[in-house]
Amino acid sequence: xxxxxxxxxxxxxxxxxxxxxxxxxxxxxxTELGTPDIVSYVHCDVTCExxxxxxxxxxxxxxxxxxxxxxxxxxxxxxxxxxxxxxxFTASVVSLTYIGTPHAYNTSKHAVVGLAKSLSVELGEHGxxxxxxxxxxxxxxxLLNLLDVSDKRKVEEVVxxxxxxxxxxxxxEDIAKAxxxxxxxxxxxxxxxxxxxxxxxxxxx
Length: 205
Known about the structure:
By secondary structure, the chain is an alpha/beta fold. Helix content is 41%, strand content 11%. It holds the Pfam family adh_short_C2.
């Protein structure tokens, strides 16, 4: 990311503390922002409530608060609701249209969107916004491993060929920018939204 882009990010999220799961690679890695002196890393198995609680406790104890929770790696429990203003989930284009992916995956992503909508209503009275981001396929290490493909350009070519929006390639950083918008005060009245970042793919399929 350029120096200008980093400055813009710092300005938009000035004074905010975020906890991002799945930050080791792909979308989560692209969304982790800041210099090493203001970023902390901790192992967290999001299927383990204790790990989630410890991550939240670390953020609150080290930085005094927790403004943003980006559930990029999976679904966590209620621990993060103690001191937060914005919750984000990574869903998928499959929550908007069927593309032949396994039923278990489709079901989980629909559940994430349903949870986000339900929480947006339930937590609104506490001033907590809840939104989803639904990206089209991105050649992250996870997807490349799943497809047993080593060349990410092949995946990009397939996605671009099947897509309706031509002339650009969807990258993990694009999802990070969508998360930045939804987490910032620019989206202070945006809640209950499932934001597609799919180049209109879901509208034509």
